[in-house]
Amino acid sequence: QVQLMESGGGSVQAGGSLKLSCDVSQYTYTTGCMAWLRQVEGMRREMVAHIDSDGSTFYADSVKGRFTISKDNAKNTLYLQMNSLKPEDTAMYYCVAYPGCGTTQYWGQGTQVTVSS
Questions:
Q1: For the CA atoms of 48, 76, 20, 35, what is the dihedral angle to 10 degrees?
Q2: Per-residue pLDDT tens for 23-62?
Q3: What is the rounded distance in angstroms from the CA atom of residue 70 to the CA atom of residue 57?
């Protein structure tokens, strides 16, 4: 069973930075995809960043140029470096694993990011 545990969330002022981490167990990074999604209560989930098994990345337009997704296969850890944070980045951030880059998804419990103006 794939298990994911996010950390690194918190409260920062606009313009600040945070780095989220996601420790993953029982998962093969070399053949799977991973992503960070976020959700504000009562609103739709938003794909923030995605990384393929070959390292290719995709970013939502709202975070392009400010956020960077990366992974450390040796440590089984996914990261999201968030710079120049804005109040509209406030949300619960979730780490998601897609074995074989297919439709099966495994989610972490989420970590809250709050950006004040």
A1: 10
A2: 998 777 667 899 999 999 999 999 999 999 889 999 999 9
A3: 8
